[in-house]
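Quick log. Single chain, no ligands specified.
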Amino acid sequence: MEIRLRVMCADSAESEDLTRALHDWLVEDRAVGLHARISRLESDGGPVPGAMSGDALEWIQLLVGSGFSAVGLAYAHMAFRSSLPRRQQSVSVVIERGDTRITMTDASPEAAVQLAELLSRDEEGQEADESGEIGDAS
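-> predicted structure:
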C-alpha cells in the first residue's frame, strides 16, 4: 500500500520544513519506520521560487507492507503534532491513499480513529466525507 503525506500551512517554506520534520519523525518511530519504506518525494518542477533549499520537498511517501499498523501511523501523527510549538500545532496534514485525500486538522482521538479506519480499508473501500477533512470542528 502507498500512502503520501505532507504538512500544509500558510508559509510554503515552513510547510517544507515541517514536512521534512514529519519525515524524520516517521523514520524514527518504531511503529512506522520498521514496517514502511519511507522516502521524500521532491518537486519535478525544480526549486520553488524563494525557497531556501534547492529541492522542494512536496510529499512523504510510505510504502507499507503487511506488518504496518494504521494505528501506529495515527499515533505517530498525534505525537508529532503535540511536539510542535503551540503556534504550529494548527497546521494541516494532508494524507493521500489512492484516489482518496484527507486533511487532518488536529490530533484528536477521533481524528486518529478515522485515519486508522481509512487506512485499514482496501482500495475499493468507502471514501472520506465530502470535504475530506478529519478533525474536531470546534
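The chain has one domain: 2-134.
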